[in-house]
Amino acid sequence: MHPEVVPDAFAAPLAKAWPRLAPAVKAVRYYARADSTMDLAAVEAGVPEAEGLLVVADTQTGGRGRRGRAWASPPGVGIYLSLVLRPPVAPVVEGMPSAVGLLTIAAGVAVAEGLAAATGLHAALKWPNDVVHDGRKLAGVLAEGHAIGTPGQAVVLGIGVNVRATALPPELAQIATSVEGETGRLADRGEVLAEILVAFAERYADLRAGRFDGVVHAWRTRALLGRAVVWHAASGLVAGVAAGIEPDGALTLHADGTTHHVRSGEVRWL
Fold it and tell me: Which of 12, 77, 97, 243 might form a disulfide with 252, Cβ 3.0–4.6 angstroms?
């Protein structure tokens, strides 16, 4: 499988935004059809010089989301991208923020900010990686670590956005939505892509510089807090209320007088 020329619909907005995309985006590979942008990016993840490689596809035959779930990726209707990143690696200390630990939080914030800039749509965030509007999913974020070595761990960050109203198969219509479906207006996929990447470049620069508080605060301002949730913890199901987010990106969950700090496991929002 070989990359193709970036079509004008994406190339023009990316060229206009290019001066603002560093350090997150340094090179672009486009595929009209790919199995998975995550897999294509992962091939390069072990090479330090590959940081900033953006892989974009018009359609995916094996797109995936969190926990191995399939991500519907029909042609011409969504944004499907993956980025090779090398965020600074620090010793892992529970409760302490880190660039790696906050990467999906920062990406969710960036997607919401990019959608607002490109379309005027004000989306909300669900921990840990969903971008939603009126309770239905607009976009998702996935991060996978791939290689340890100098100068650190490589992470492939994937983002999928439902842009056109035709992006969704019928079985997902009740739980997912699209940008055009929510705004009632046509959306320019190239502009949406460029604005999301601009927003992410700013948030990634924050993470690299250790400005973690700003990223967490931005997430809080868009988060669906105060909502009932069920946490699939290792010890069993915990029902409670999503109360906030910790400085390290953990979800604060209040359940029966006990405060839990959720760093792993599935969280279902009710």
Answer: 243
